[in-house]
């Protein structure tokens, strides 16, 4: 019996192609996925990114699905949010082949049920793993068929229908696709809009020859920042490898935090639906719930991770949700995450007024933050307990353990310390009134974490 615990993660399947993941195994995953969703649907939609291994793996998965009697709709090259669009608009379960921003030797599978509902460890992924480990049962009936369908135009039209840019002033925007799927989707989505795109690294190349397709790492947006300044652009947008996350820089080339983007988009969504609920994970700036409440909305805090965000959106009927990692979720997009739609909102907000993006986003950026700081530790539990014990004795400190350890301090500063699920790491995020306060608190907590 194979042990798949190393590649079946909390929300997806991911591993090194040829060592942990091959077409034979992926065929079994396809068959197991078909068994999971068979009671609900006759068809599954499948898409893939630009990695060299993706077409072959997607075809193997399709073979597994059809071996269990279900049909496959193949949409070919696509972004992850385009796959979610297909799942939602066609009302089919889906599978996306991508390893997002991981290096070229990796690949993986993100799966969803019909309507882009997430499949994670608690919602079917553990069952899929168990089925493959124990051996997929043979199906004696008729095999399913595979048909091809292009949904890029429908996806682009749907997004443009959710954000009105018709009244926008002309904008110049640098877009860094990182040789990922943004190079495929951006030209179609932005076609006909009053936006001049300055493209960077739009060539699809799963070896990522220019930089890692992870815009949250500051070194990967250096080229974008320079190009924005060089061209005098109004803004810059960077996408990750599968283009489901977007990161924004202003006209000065300065990064705009995902928390500020969350607050900005939340205000726009609340203008359409006053009193609506907005989800934010516990690492977003405390400015997010403040701004949501000030605009008449209902902020709801949740754990980090898309399955928690989507579940809470379903429970509360939330109109929007945002994470510190630049994932943005929209009720009108089947509660799925789409960086492209968030980018359109930012550009619409910018184009509706005459000021620069730095002035617009300043209203949504209230506090200084550390960003995520990782520490390798021998004993996650012991280090977490040491930090908890140290702060439990401080006057006025409030502690909760919704997701790791969150400590609120008098004066408004706070930090969250969480263990990684897959590595011997503790992840620290700190926020305070100014940079000096952030650095002081960061030094104090890291002193306890790192001994």
UniProtKB/TrEMBL annotation:
Q: Which residues form the Alpha-D-phosphohexomutase C-terminal domain?
A: 372-446
| Biological processes, Gene Ontology terms | carbohydrate metabolic process
Q: Name one GO molecular function term.
A: phosphomannomutase activity
Cofactor requirements of the protein: Mg(2+)
Using the record's annotation, list all stretches that form the Alpha-D-phosphohexomutase alpha/beta/alpha domain.
8-133, 161-253, 261-366
Q: Does the keyword Oxidoreductase apply?
A: no
**E.C. number, please?**
5.4.2.8
So which domain of life are we looking at?
Bacteria
Q: Which UniProt keywords apply?
A: Isomerase, Magnesium, Metal-binding, Phosphoprotein
Instruction: Give the main EC class.
Output: isomerase
Recorded hits in InterPro entries, A to Z, give:
A-D-PHexomutase_a/b/a-I, A-D-PHexomutase_a/b/a-I/II/III, A-D-PHexomutase_a/b/a-II, A-D-PHexomutase_a/b/a-III, A-D-PHexomutase_C, A-D-PHexomutase_C_sf, Alpha-D-phosphohexomutase_SF
> So what family is this one in?
Belongs to the phosphohexose mutase family.
Provide the protein name.
Phosphomannomutase
Originating organism: Amycolatopsis jiangsuensis
């Amino acid at each position: 019996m194979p042990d798949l615990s190393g590649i079946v993660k909390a929300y997806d399947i991911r591993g090194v192609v040829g060592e942990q993941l091959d077409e034979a195994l992926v065929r079994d995953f396809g068959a197991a996925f078909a068994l999971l969703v068979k009671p609900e649907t006759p068809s599954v939609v499948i898409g893939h990114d630009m990695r060299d291994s993706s077409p072959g793996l997607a075809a193997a998965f399709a073979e597994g699905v059809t071996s269990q009697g279900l049909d496959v709709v193949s949409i070919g090259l696509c972004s992850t949010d385009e796959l979610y669009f297909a799942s939602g608009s066609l009302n089919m379960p889906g599978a996306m082949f991508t390893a997002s921003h991981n290096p070229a030797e990796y690949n993986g599978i993100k799966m969803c049920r019909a309507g882009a509902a997430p499949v994670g460890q608690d919602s079917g992924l553990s069952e899929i793993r168990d089925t493959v480990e124990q051996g997929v049962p043979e199906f004696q009936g008729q095999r399913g068929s595979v048909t091809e369908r292009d949904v890029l135009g429908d996806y682009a039209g749907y997004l443009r229908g959710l954000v009105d840019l018709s009244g926008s002033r002309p904008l110049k925007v640098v877009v860094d696709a990182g040789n990922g799927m943004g190079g495929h989707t951006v030209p179609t989505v932005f076609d006909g809009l009053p936006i001049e795109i300055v493209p960077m690294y739009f060539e699809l190349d799963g070896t990522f020859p220019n930089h890692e397709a992870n815009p949250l790492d500051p070194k990967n947006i250096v080229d974008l920042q320079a190009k924005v300044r060089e061209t005098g652009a109004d803004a810059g947008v960077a996408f990750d490898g599968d283009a489901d996350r977007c990161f924004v820089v202003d006209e000065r080339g300065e990064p705009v935090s995902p928390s500020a983007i969350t607050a900005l988009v939340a205000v726009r969504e609340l203008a359409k639906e006053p009193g609506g609920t907005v989800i934010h994970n516990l690492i977003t700036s405390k400015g997010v719930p403040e701004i949501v409440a000030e605009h008449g909305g209902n902020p709801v805090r949740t754990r980090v991770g898309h399955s928690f965000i989507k579940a809470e959106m379903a429970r509360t009927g939330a109109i929007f949700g945002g994470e510190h990692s630049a994932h943005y979720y929209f009720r009108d997009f089947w509660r799925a995450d789409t960086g492209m739609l968030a980018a359109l909102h930012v550009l619409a907000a910018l184009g509706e007024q005459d000021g620069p993006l730095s002035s617009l986003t300043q209203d949504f950026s209230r506090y200084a933050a550390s960003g995520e700081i990782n520490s390798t530790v021998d004993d996650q539990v012991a280090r977490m307990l040491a930090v908890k014990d140290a702060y439990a004795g401080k006057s006025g400190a409030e502690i909760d353990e919704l997701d790791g350890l969150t400590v609120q301090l008098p004066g408004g500063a706070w930090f969250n310390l969480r263990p990684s699920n897959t590595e011997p790491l503790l992840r620290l995020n700190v926020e305070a009134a100014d940079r000096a306060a952030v650095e002081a608190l960061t030094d104090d907590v890291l002193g306890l974490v790192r001994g």
